[in-house]
Design a protein that fits this description.
The chain has nine helices and ten strands. It is of the alpha/beta class and about 250 residues long. The chain has a domain of about 60 residues.
């Protein structure tokens, strides 16, 4: 597979940080169309910062971020709006509006970004809820659902504009192992059956092994990527002892 030919996201020379210095420096990588790509690393290494740059919330200190060939850093106006519609985001908490039903939550992007009539918006929203296993729950409020169901509803909302890419921030956070495994299977199903590209931030090893086609590992000291590849390959063959310890869940000797 030629990563140059099928890259849907290209990050080139990205540096990012805040007033107290750079968290990431000269970071480059590509995400291939249709793969499940995982960003991982220790606390404070810049995982969430990188995600926020990828979705255009923060401008980088340097570098470019190309989404399907277009630069999200420099895109403005109508071009930027069109680019933002190419991806959906599920935040760690799910970020559902507690005063709205699931159907209203999922319909909201359609109200903002399309001219569809109410009947068509509801039909699309119900279809997305069914895709994530929540058919029949449209009239429920978020507080009436389990954490796993709330995460599924958030994924349905992220999918409602039919984006090519879904960004998921710690999707398994706060879930029990069984619910987390079910969510992993949903992610794989959507990726394989619908061809959606997933970019997932997580540190949950079972999920990483279950869903990841490729991973990049960030490191706070290096301010960038210290490993890239399939998790099984990094576990067994990485030249970096810290990387091997991470994937084998080995404690660092004192």
């Amino acid at each position: 597979m030629d990563p140059q030919g099928d890259a849907i996201i290209r990050v080139e020379g990205l540096s990012a940080g805040f007033d107290d210095g750079l968290l990431l420096q000269d970071v480059s990588f590509q995400v291939r169309r249709g793969e499940v790509f995982v960003i991982l690393g220790g606390s404070g290494c810049g995982k969430s910062t990188l995600l926020k740059h990828l979705i255009g919330l923060y401008p980088p200190a340097a570098g470019t971020i190309l989404i399907d060939g277009e630069d999200i850093v420099t895109a403005q106006g109508v071009q930027r709006l069109a680019l933002l519609r190419k991806f959906g985001v599920m935040y760690q908490s799910g970020a559902l509006f507690g005063s709205m039903t699931l159907l209203e939550n999922v319909t909201l992007p359609l109200e903002s970004y399309t001219d569809l009539p109410p009947e068509a918006r509801e039909l699309v929203a119900r279809t997305k809820l069914a895709l994530v296993g929540l058919e029949g729950f449209g009239r429920h409020m978020p507080a009436e659902l389990s954490g796993g169901m709330q995460k599924r509803a958030a994924i349905a909302r992220a999918m409602v504009l039919d984006p090519a890419i879904l960004f998921l921030d710690e999707p398994s956070a706060g879930l029990d192992p069984i619910t987390s495994a079910e969510l992993d299977q949903l992610i794989l199903s959507l990726a394989r059956n619908l061809g959606i590209t997933f970019v997932v931030v997580t540190h949950e090893l079972p999920s990483i092994y279950a869903i990841a086609d490729r991973v990049i590992m960030l490191d706070k000291t290096a301010r960038g990527i210290i490993a890239e590849g399939r998790p099984e390959m990094l576990r067994d063959h990485s030249d970096n002892p810290w990387v091997r310890r991470f994937f084998n869940r080995e404690a660092v000797s004192s």
